[in-house]
Amino acid sequence: MISYLDLLLKLTIWFLLTSDFSLANIIIGVTICLLLPRKLTSPGKLKDWLRALVEVLIAIPQAYVEAIEIMLFPHKKEGVKMERVKPQRTPGLIFLDIFIITFTPKTIVLKYHEAGWYEVHRIKRRKQS
Length: 129
Known about the structure:
Structural class: alpha+beta
Number of strands: 3
Largest sheet: 3 strands, antiparallel
Organism: Crocosphaera subtropica (strain ATCC 51142 / BH68) (Cyanothece sp. (strain ATCC 51142))
Transmembrane segments: 12-37
Strand order of the largest sheet: 1-3-2
Helix content: 40-55%
Number of helices: 4
Protein name: Na+/H+ antiporter subunit E
Radius of gyration: 17 Å
Shape: globular
Number of domains: 2
Distance between the termini: 48 Å
CATH topology of the largest domain: Ribosomal Protein S8, Chain: A, domain 1
Keywords: Membrane, Transmembrane, Transmembrane helix
């Protein structure tokens, strides 16, 4: 059975894409969410989902601060760094991790490696060691 949290994540993405809360759109969204293929994994723990949602809420003001920094100060250095995926992550939580990293203006996930790594591109104000 599909996890309720994964279903909620897929429905949220559906409503963000369609911007329509009519009964017909809700029925279509639920149908599509149930028909989408999914991996058979253990369902995510509620604690992990709540922690990820808190990280999303923290990323919103952080994105504004970074956007202002980019406008006011030049960021001429850049680099690519490999970051390890947190253990025991379901595909929905991995998606949220990638969303959080990419949401902030100074970072973007270039690639997710199945071995458990994110390839993250960052811009910096100056060379940091």
